[in-house]
Amino acid sequence: MSTYKEIFGKAIKSIAGDPNPSPVTYTVTVQSVDGANKYFIDGVLTPTLELYEGNTYNFDYSAASSHPFRFSTTSDGTHNSGTEYQNGVSVAGNVTTIVVQVGAPTLYYYCSVHSGMGGIALTPAADSTLEGQIWYNESLGKFRSVVMSGAFSSGGSLNVGRYAIGSAGTFTAGLAIGGDLFPNPPGRGSNSTEEYNGTSWATGGNLGTSASWRAGAGTQTAASGTGGNAYGGSYISTSENYDGSSWTSATSAPYIAEGSVSTGSRPASIWGGGGSPATSPEYPPKFFYGDGEGWTAITDANNANRYAATFTGTQTAALLTGGSSPQTANTESWDGSSWSNETAFPRVFANAGGNRVGTSTSGVVAGGTSTALPGQNLTSTHWNGTAWAADAALSVLKQSSTSAGTQNEYYVAGAPNPGSAPGRASTEEYSKTIYSPVAATWSSGGSLNTARENGAVSGTKTAGLYAGGKVYPNSFKNESEEYDGTSWAEGNNLGTARSNIGGAGTQTAGLAAGGTNGAPGSSGVQTATEEYGGTSWTAGGALSTARMNTSTAGLQTAAFMAGGINSSNNLVTTVEHYNGSSWTSGTAMPGERSNSAAAGTQTAGLAFGGYVPPSYAFANTTIEYDGEGWTAGGNLSVARYGLGGFGSQTNAVAFAGTTPPNSNSNSTELYNGTSWSTAPNLATSRTGFSPSGSFNSGTDGFAAGGSQAGNPMNAQTEEWSPEVIALDYKNISSS
Fold first, then answer.
1. Could you tell me the domains of the chain?
2. Phi-psi bin for 582: left (phi > 0), alpha (psi -120 to 50), beta?
């Protein structure tokens, strides 16, 4: 049966059945793809697997018994200087079984006999509370299970440190009402009100009566504060209403009390509990409806001892848990007519800061005191309508605090200090992070209309540009093509047919500079620069040095070109900067280099791989450019030339190319600003990419064209999608 889940505020239909079954048996077969053997798992070419912690997975390779199926922490396992991963792995006959261990690393599956056959296996943690929820990943066009994790971070501090504070409002429009200034002696009540905007606290209107332990309800602009302990330790029944700027007197509560609880809205609240010497028992289970003008008794709660309890929800759907005296773990719900006992809280407690967080089916208790665990109640505990589950821990013990928000986003502010020190003003904010366990991957895209290599490439995965290039054996092209993320369409022609061109910029503001038109001797290597405006090419400023096979990156109006091969067939170190009209000299590279890839901007660029002296040696080095000088970066795992590259200086992608001794590669590596790491392979090994760097953040890109073994030209496009970026609940609205 299918269900619907709310994710990012949108109803998304979930898959039927268990999204995280165990055990699972996969059938492994082998087929030839582009002349190379590849694993197919349940008929799918080298899919990215999701193997959840604690689950068991069987891989039956009986139909491919000459290709033993194994795991490694390194792409392509023992064929890439890695070792076989054996933790929780067993082999019986032609079946490899893995019981995924808690904390298992990202794995790669591979053939122990033959290289280049496998793919990636993610090992996410299973989260039973989120099973059945899915998220549609637009970049990949796939549905994936959702994983959430929460954490606390520092928020804005109260202007007045205190505790025993009344609460109302939301995370971005919260209210702190009154409170105690000093823990000893008690009863030094405050009349101050503060308003929270999700970032900082601002002073609001003062209460008419200074008091701590007030019960708050409503919103920042329509709140109530009822009961409490006035200065000197006297219990009160006073009730006041807040309109967003000032407090006015309202009908008093039915009895004097401190530590009472309230929830709902000002015209429709529910109030009761607390401690009162005027009632019997002293900690009564009495509750009342409030409309801002008066009070109406409702059925008593099932359990007494609701002093400093937590209470959340509405007048007709509320959750009540914990409290004292003595401290209790009792939990019960109110449906508008009766109370029902629910699963007890995991421990007895009182004085928590979660009295305004969540709903009757998704409430929160954060911090508090406990006779069972004195001083140790730092955790937040979430209610899902049926059961309680522990979540992230506060950094500092919070009790008798003010709080507001939802189960996914809330704050907890204020707390007592020992002795006679003023109460704490610190605020901690809780937020969920949501992500889908989808690794970076290459996927098939539309094919070029003309198969070719070494054209000028720019743009992004959904707005790409390919200009010029060469068709084997020696046909130089001037055609341009534009990519929309699905297919290539003919664009306007370059003024000069050429290949081995430096490319930079975007689809509608592209740059093609240098290269060769194939003419013999010095006449073939170009100084010409052309600019694309989205419809046609126009001449730009000429390079100072004719060159091809350069490292080129940046924008049409702020590009750099480094190294390459000049008209005398020599490797060079010279660097030039383009400003949209002319080239000027920049700081030379630390050594000659050609056929390398580039990424980034004119002032934060990268050059990696390629040829270097002596004798055109394969390079694995990376050098970083800041617009004024070069520094060494991390080395590629695999030396290569004729590779492709895109991204930024701190988030770059290197792919394909020619590797020693002279083999086309399909491997991919990712740069984080310090070092390179292996990533999923392209489906097709190829070389002959224009050494250009598409100006993007590394979040997407494409590989188009190139040449394969025996020099056949390739028209195929593959699209790069990175690992999904986590979203914070605070930032969902702006994402």
1. 21-125 (2.60.40.420), 154-435 (2.120.10.80), 441-722 (2.120.10.80)
2. beta
